[in-house]
Design brief:
The structure is a homodimer of 351-residue chains.
Chain A: E1 4-6, E2 9-11, H1 21-28, H2 32-40, H3 46-59, H4 65-72, E3 77-82, H5 88-101, E4 107-112, H6 117-128, E5 134-138, H7 144-153, E6 157-160, E7 170-173, H8 176-189, E8 195-199, H9 206-221, E9 228-231, H10 242-252, E10 258-261, H11 264-276, E11 286-288, H12 294-298, E12 305-308, H13 310-327, E13 337-340, E14 343-346
The structure holds a DNA duplex (16 and 16 nucleotides).
Chain lengths: 351, 351
DNA sequence: TTGAAAGCGTTACCAC
DNA sequence: GTGGTAACGCTTTCAA
């Protein structure tokens, strides 16, 4: 059985390609179901289990996950979308998600939206084809199409890094604007009054825009005069954006004595540029960043910044998705939930 | 047809959950096959196509990719493994792969080995369950199990960032040791003789080890005396590792006047520490990095480094995989190929 | 140009 | 504890 006579030769393996579950079953002298049970860890007589395992090892059998998913109606995918892989805070968030989800056998489908909402929609649509169990997005801004297709999919959704007014399902994040306001107050408390802000040029980075908004609001609230805003550089904001932005700021408002940056990356670039211009930080000009990236700790001077638990956002999001998947919470019941992640202004040498 | 009488009410949709291809077919008044053809872009009468498309849109139908893959025997997955997501060179490589593969409808399954070969093997085994069309690994070191399971899978494999003596299938990379040797010569040409090297502590980062080996070889070849090696910090080497490593180096060999680092990250940390110690770079001590990361351009002083086209490694690997998948090149024919990526020593201010 | 039937490799369900 | 059978949702193949 299983043997075939072709051109007068006995061929023991009737099919090409990798071994199937039926091959394992045949070799082990059991049915496919028993093989399936061994693989799933269900109860099987020890002796049988051993024979099956032996056959699996001999053949180098690897179960086809797609077939399994189709049959059981349950995939093991989780779709995850971040604006940029190159940004260390988002890769930390992905690590957090991964740490939470991997132990449960879930496989992450990772997508990089490049801060482009249309691209996000394309990726969401494309990933939905794999029937993911749940999905994690970054930010609260999405196209109408994205929202619609997610609403229809009925799977758990978590939005990260923001606290949307009207979340699709769940959200894990913090108020970027309030964090920026806190930094303004910190600088004011240290005696700085002429405070500038280096933001990105595009409106795609909503979290960056929120920080800018917070800065503007608090400058007004504290009576610190007209905001001094430079908008320069495409998202993601990198170190290279800091120097030209600083130059622009000092070109326009030469008496500025403190600079808030939308990210530690540009803060670092700005500090290096200060040094090149012969300005001491913070004696001549203070510089503050955002994100508590590694560079803020290693730079000389160390950089005052807002610390955000990026990894924690990911692992919290992962936990929420897990419990939501487990309980099968129907989204139709609008049990929308927001979860706040802490942030702190960390006082260092630069401001 | 398709309607069911339940509790005296006519229910038009006989099943729960998301719409199926048969639902679309029913609504459009065609067979499943016609829907399938519309989706695949095969020839269908314009009027029919329009009706089908309308039904798809109305229902918000999303084809199940797993079912399609099972039926056609062809998945759309590519497995990609990198040692660390946080490292910008690997995320650049992933972007390069993504750019090459995405236009062909291939979906990347990304895994993070954390510089752990056993974890790599687990991930490879796990990803193989999704029947990927091909796989990209980082480095030339793998467990016996990894090699075996890949050999058996018979799918195209590309190893990146190294040039293995005996590649599994294809390889895209460069000689890390030769690049390091070139940097030693560069420093010697600039008049430096007392050259130290800051390496990582663990042997997991094979590319780092290769660089260290190259340094040692060239120090000997050039008659530059005993190597001055500090091994400190777990992979991935980060900015924070630079300062303590530099301290250790100067503690042990106080007259060192040039420092090569396994990465721009530690080079940056070392430079900041030099400043803290009151040492001018490069007047008192030269520092060179590796990788041409953004920080090497933005730092003051700018950092002399080895530039490697990380994105190019990814896109080249992607192209190789594509053509290998397209041609169905059987690996049994040992048509093993290695592809070299260029690197250059970039002279900047720090050395 | 379109449709019907037969799988793809697995798991759920129900017998034994 | 184990096995047979019928799906799962799609594409391939072949026929109309």
């Amino acid at each position: 059985m299983g043997n075939t006579r072709i051109n007068d030769r006995i061929v023991s393996d009737p099919h090409a390609g990798p071994p199937r579950m039926s091959d394992v079953a045949r070799i082990a002298g059991v049915s496919k179901m028993t093989v399936s049970r061994v693989l799933a860890g269900h109860s099987v007589a020890p002796a049988t289990r051993e024979r099956v395992q032996q056959a699996i090892d001999d053949l180098g059998y690897v179960a086809d996950a797609a077939a399994g998913a189709l049959s059981s109606g349950k995939s093991e995918f989780v779709a995850v979308l971040v604006p940029s892989l190159a940004s260390s805070n988002f890769s930390d968030t992905v690590r957090g998600l991964s740490a939470a989800l991997e132990p449960h056998g879930l496989q992450i489908l990772l997508g990089d939206t490049d801060y482009d909402l249309a691209r996000e929609e394309r990726l969401v649509r494309s990933m939905l084809r794999y029937q993911p169990r749940c999905i994690a997005l970054t930010g609260s801004q999405h196209t109408e199409g994205t929202r619609q297709v997610l609403e229809r999919s009925r799977i758990p959704v978590v939005e990260m890094w923001d606290l949307p007014a009207n979340p699709i399902d769940m959200a894990v994040g913090f108020s970027n604007s309030r964090a920026a306001r806190e930094m303004v107050r910190y600088l004011k408390d240290r005696g700085y009054r002429k405070i500038g802000f280096l933001a990105g040029a595009s409106d795609l980075d909503r979290r960056g825009l929120e920080r800018l908004k917070g800065y503007q609001q608090e400058m007004k609230a504290q009576g610190l005069g007209e905001p001094r805003v430079i908008r320069f550089g495409e998202s993601p904001i990198t170190m290279s954006h800091g120097a030209p932005a600083l130059d622009a700021l000092l070109g326009r408002w030469p008496d500025t004595n403190a600079v808030m940056c939308v990210s530690d990356m540009s803060a670092f670039g700005a500090i290096m540029q200060c040094h090149r211009r012969g300005l001491r930080v913070p004696a001549d000009i203070a510089v503050a960043g955002f994100g508590n990236f590694e560079v803020s700790i290693c730079c000389n001077p160390t950089i005052t910044t807002v610390s955000v638990d990026a990894y924690g956002i990911g692992s919290r999001a992962g936990q929420l998705l897990l419990s939501s998947v487990a309980s099968g919470t129907p989204r139709a019941v609008p049990e929308r939930r927001k979860f706040t992640i802490d942030y702190t202004v960390i006082s260092r040498e630069s401001a």
